[in-house]
């Protein structure tokens, strides 16, 4: 286990959050309510202006009052100047291009924290890998946050927890101390691979749950898919070096339950629209925000194939997305290559 560089403050005075969508804004609120001085970057000036003037972000968190001390700007230098921790909450497929814009603005030696749950199309890299490549920073400066974190519930200060993971326990602990307040608690681990893949894979299972929900299937079907989905998640993550216990923790099972069961879940919503008969392009057009699960289906299946991991649930989601499988025929938990009974 590596130790973090000594210039990192465990309780930062100033924190930057890049991305003013629902999760970025919510996490900025978490940090501000934990005592940090937070500046958030909004791509659209009108969003930054509303946060500053009205302490609201009505496009993404309707009805939520934001902390009075939460600053916002559409100018990256203003947000990043003097930051002691930098949090990234942009769509996973645009992370690389955003990092190329900000790499010279991020202060030296500070932790860079991924709030994203996705895999880059084409390269199949996890978000922490993209950060390392584009910023040229070591793993001891990179952390990832995952868990059962539906933004609107947390913005309403309903109590929940998350896990912060880094190759350096010091870095994970510094981030966890910042991301802690009366309604939000952060735990730590050093299994970055498992924590990231848990956050990615549960989105794909949530799309499957949304599909069967949209079709009209009941709780037995959904419970079966969630249970077998956890098996798929674990098999996949362990094949890439994750610890199996991470998949039974907040980043795995915890996030899986929340994302599959809640109508607030973007991935569940996307799946439900697919199950109701909308095609891929119609679903994208109806979604106000990014459903990371849809973007991650193809790269996850490519990665699974490279390691010989079978993922029948994700494979059937891919078929529905491609229009080659009627949503009513989805039954991924029944898929097997043999009629011989298999061990659970």
Written description of the protein model:
The chain is globular. It has two domains: 14-190, Rossmann fold, CATH 3.40.50.720; 195-334, N-(1-d-carboxylethyl)-l-norvaline Dehydrogenase, domain 2, CATH 1.10.1040. It has an eight-stranded mixed sheet with strand order 3-2-1-4-5-6-7-8, sandwiched between helices. Residues 1-12 have low confidence and may be disordered. The protein has helices spanning 22-33, 45-54, 76-80, 95-102, 127-135, 151-155, 169-178, 192-215, 219-239, 244-247, 250-261, 266-275, 280-286, 292-307, 312-322, and strands at residues 14-18, 37-41, 71-73, 85-88, 112-114, 142-146, 160-166, 184-189. The chain is an alpha/beta fold. The longest helix is centred in the middle third of the chain and has 24 residues, at 192-215. Helix 4 packs parallel to helix 5.
Structural class from helices and strands? alpha/beta
**Count of DSSP helices?**
15
Judging from the principal axes of the Cα atoms, what is the shape? Answer: globular
Q: Give the DSSP E fraction (strand runs of 2 or more residues).
A: 5-15%
Which strand order spans the largest sheet, edge to edge or round the barrel? Answer: 3-2-1-4-5-6-7-8
Number of domains: 2
Gap from first CA to last CA:
35 Å
The biggest beta sheet reads: 8 strands, mixed
Task: Describe this protein with a few key phrases.
2 domains, 344 residues, N-(1-d-carboxylethyl)-l-norvaline Dehydrogenase, domain 2, alpha/beta, globular, disordered N terminus, Rossmann fold, eight-stranded mixed β-sheet
């Amino acid at each position: 286990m590596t130790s973090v560089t000594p210039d990192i403050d465990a309780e930062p005075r100033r924190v930057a959050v890049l991305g003013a969508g629902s999760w970025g804004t919510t996490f900025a609120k978490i940090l501000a309510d934990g005592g940090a001085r937070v500046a958030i970057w909004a791509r659209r000036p009108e969003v930054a202006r509303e946060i500053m003037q009205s302490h609201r972000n009505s496009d993404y968190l309707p009805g939520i009052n934001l902390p009075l001390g939460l600053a916002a700007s559409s100018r990256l230098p203003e947000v990043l100047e003097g930051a002691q921790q930098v949090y990234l909450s942009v769509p996973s497929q645009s992370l690389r291009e955003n990092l190329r814009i900000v790499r010279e603005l991020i202060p030296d030696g500070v932790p860079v924290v991924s709030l994203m749950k996705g895999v880059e199309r084409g390269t199949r890299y996890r978000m922490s890998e993209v950060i390392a490549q584009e910023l040229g920073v070591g793993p001891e400066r990179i952390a990832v946050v995952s868990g059962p974190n539906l933004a609107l519930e947390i913005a309403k200060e309903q109590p929940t927890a998350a896990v912060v993971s880094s190759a350096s326990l010091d870095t994970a602990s510094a981030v966890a101390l910042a991301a802690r307040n009366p309604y939000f608690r952060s735990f730590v681990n050093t299994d970055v691979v498992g924590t990231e893949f848990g956050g990615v894979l549960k989105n794909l299972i949530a799309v499957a749950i949304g599909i069967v929900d949209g079709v009209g299937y009941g709780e037995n079907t959904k419970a079966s898919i969630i249970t077998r989905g956890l098996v798929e998640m674990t098999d996949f993550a362990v094949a890439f070096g994750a610890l199996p216990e991470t998949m039974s923790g907040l980043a795995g099972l915890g996030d899986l339950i929340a994302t599959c069961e809640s109508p607030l879940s973007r991935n569940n919503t996307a799946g439900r629209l697919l199950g109701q008969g909308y095609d891929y392009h119609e679903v994208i057009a109806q979604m106000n925000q990014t459903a990371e699960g849809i973007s991650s289906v193809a790269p996850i299946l490519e990665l699974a194939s490279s390691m010989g991991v079978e993922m029948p649930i994700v494979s059937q989601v891919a078929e529905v997305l491609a229009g080659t499988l009627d949503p009513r025929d989805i039954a991924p938990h029944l898929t097997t290559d043999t009629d011989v009974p298999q061990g659970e």
